[in-house]
């Protein structure tokens, strides 16, 4: 039940607790916490071949190499349901098939390695949660689609049909330039609470949204990330009318410098990420106070350092947010 004060007391249902003035605000104007670097990275399969980085692919047969990749690639340490319960509403879901998989129509998530759990099982878990929390709007961003080179159209068709079957009437259709952008209230009225972004240009399904722009610093240095995000947000401006992600996450190099972080026995990547979070959250609050047009904010290790509460608390009614 929405609270007239707009005070959030439970992050498992924070959208339903926002101030009534915000219920008619387009979703691209709400601050929404999200998880980055594949939301399923807690479930990586040590028996999977190495998908990335390229520098280590040839070492896939070596167990210790796969263990190193799994350690470095585990950027989320709690399950998808725990992330949902914590208040996360945007999910970075990178799709792959497993090499030489005897089940060609089975899909997995990946970050360095494939996950143990297949995609349909996880989507059904998300659907079950969405059914129990009908006023919480979930945004699922599916992308990358590794090992889709053969039978690409058939594979996309099968995955899309699976998505439509799992979520059914919960799916919120993408909008055109003539359509009003979804709000909390419009989703509640229609009984829809799942938005699926599908990053494949040939996708024409009305139930699936196009790629959501993701701004990130592409660096392991917080100062560089902040500077790049400030530039991107300035270039975007306050008037664009679509979803976008501001990624607070650090990003590993794509060349041999990645080994510095993967092979360092004294400073795990998760520790590096945790040290950066308080600073990044302080930057977020300062940035929002100066240019209040933040939408989705994504991070690694989303249950650390008050990440969710910091993002959610950015949602304050303004003079331009009036009730219909």
UniProtKB/TrEMBL annotation:
Pfam families in alphabetical order: PI-PLC_X (PF26146)
UniProt xrefs under PROSITE patterns: PIPLC_X_DOMAIN
Source organism superkingdom: Eukaryota
GO annotation terms (biological process): lipid metabolic process
GO MF term set: phosphoric diester hydrolase activity
Residue ranges constituting the Phosphatidylinositol-specific phospholipase C X domain according to the UniProt record: 21-198
PANTHER family: PI-PLC X DOMAIN-CONTAINING PROTEIN 1, PTHR13593
Protein name: Phosphatidylinositol-specific phospholipase C X domain-containing protein
Species annotation: Perca fluviatilis (European perch)
